[in-house]
Amino acid sequence: MDPLVTTNSTKNVVYLIARQYVDDYRPCIHPDLWKVLDGYIRSRNLPGLANACDLFNPQSNGLDDLRHLSQVASFFKKNVVFSDPQVCEDAATLAFHKAEKRCRIANKRLDYYFHRRDRLDPTLERQISRAEGFITRVLGDFDRFLESLPHRIRVTPGATSTLSRRKSLPFMKVTMKPACTPGAVPYVKALYRYYGYRAPRCKTVLENRVAAVPKNWKTHRLIACEPTHNVPIQLAFDDYVKGRLRRNGINLSDQSLNQELSRIGSIDGTLCTVDLSAASDTLSLNAVHWLLPRPWAKFLTDVRTPRYEFRGETGTYSKFSSMGNGTTFGLESLVFAACCYALKPACFNVYGDDIVIDTDKYADLRRILSFFGFSINDAKSFFTGSFRESCGTDWYAGSNITPFYLRDWDVSKSSRPNLCHNVNGLASIALPGGDLWHWLLRLTTANRLPLVPYNEASTSGVWIDISRAHKLKLFYYENGLTTFRSYVSKTRKMKVYDSRTLFLWHLDKCRESNFPAYGVIQQLGNVVVRSVVPTLSNKYVLKRVNWILPVGGPLDDIPKRSIRAPDKGRHSSEPDHLFWWSDDLELAIR
């Protein structure tokens, strides 16, 4: 077996991938840049490689140079293989306390000017008034929201401050004793009474549990696990505010508008993209109480968690809500949209802390955001030049140069779906016929990764085009259905014998939940039997799945028992590289 395929050092594999990529595209990279990249790879200069885009000079380098620099950086930037857990957690802890300090300063400043608005700059005061009016109009009548609250409840499978992930399936949460903050107790009891239950005694929780999750090679991201019964009420507000923002042209379920606007900005420079540093962690308590009408601010304060527990210590939040709070994303989007609206721009859109706005409003936006305690991330905000970045897409002069991020590397059997994802991504950016291209072919055959027709799931197997999949007889025909074998998430069915699971059925019926809980309710005396499918786990199994044609145009002809490829040899919606990749992969298998 190829030693390059079976090497045990995951770090060496990533450096190998980077070296092969750089060598393959050497004719397309400026000679001076190539020498620097080659030196970084040979010397294992991780900071230099992770920040390779800093080498780009628009005066002497072109679009191809930027594309390749960005791709090399993406091999390392978010790769957890190179992270030291202790160092990353320490960095995240330091950032957490810095954000808390910024919120304390912002709270004092906002408290002072809220009671002395006459001392504000007249222009800033008018902008803040417009922002307040925008938020009031978007939120609407609070009483109408309260009436719809029971129908917006969602029970999700996430871990909470009192439950681990394994014990956080929805049916488990609704059958346990309620645990929430003191402010949320009246809402929880009202919901139980609404669904026909006697209001139970709630276990009061004052702290959420802060945990660290991987972010990039330098630091972790801190998130907070909220009290179990606070989260459904928080998510009800999230659902409401998303619907209200959608009426005002801001769709928080679709990133495509931000991406298109950033593309336009990279062409003519009329729009800039703005990213904030620690946006969720710097939404201060007084900023919310200033901008939101009193009933709304009180409700959100009731359902937030006032304290945190992290690394054995507890403290009181200066921020309003942390990542993990169900209101955070919708609330911060509302605040940032209001700040943009206050400037009267010709065009703007927000998606969380990703903001696109008129370039001539950039300075004014920085000013109003700074007043409320937010800080613009200069490294990820672009208002000059031809580069724009927003919602996961990178644009340079109208060209999409978004790289493939290599986040980890594992060839063990338990991680084969993730290995398929990496192979698919690397094949899309590798030079056909190059060293990396052939190395991926050997890797696929050596690990016997399953081949699948091109579909939406990159973890399902190694993609090949439809015509090649048909030639290799990967399709099965039975009972009038066309299927193929691929990796899918493993699930199992569980029967719950508890009358209180009827509460979950009510929640499902009132709102189509995102978690897959299906089944039949049968009334057997005083016992309700419910068949529940728990949340999809991280385990995968290789099994047959139904074949659904990709979007982009039907095949010329699909007989009942066969599939004939179109005249062009491949499906119109497939990526171009699959045409050559599938051909080479078939030769490698033989």
Write up what this structure looks like.
- The longest helix has 30 residues, at 85-114.
- This protein has a 4-stranded mixed sheet with strand order 4-3-6-7. A 3-stranded antiparallel sheet has the order 5-9-8, with helices on both faces. Strands 10-11-12 form a 3-stranded antiparallel sheet, with helices on one face.
- The protein is globular, with a radius of gyration of 27 Å.
- Helix 2 packs antiparallel against helix 3 (31-42), helix 17 (416-429) packs antiparallel against helix 18 and helix 18 (435-446) packs across helix 21 (577-589).
- The chain is an alpha+beta fold and 590 residues long.
- The two termini are 16 Å apart.
- The protein folds into 4 domains: 3-80, no CATH class; 87-399, no CATH class; 417-489 and 541-590, no CATH class; 491-536.
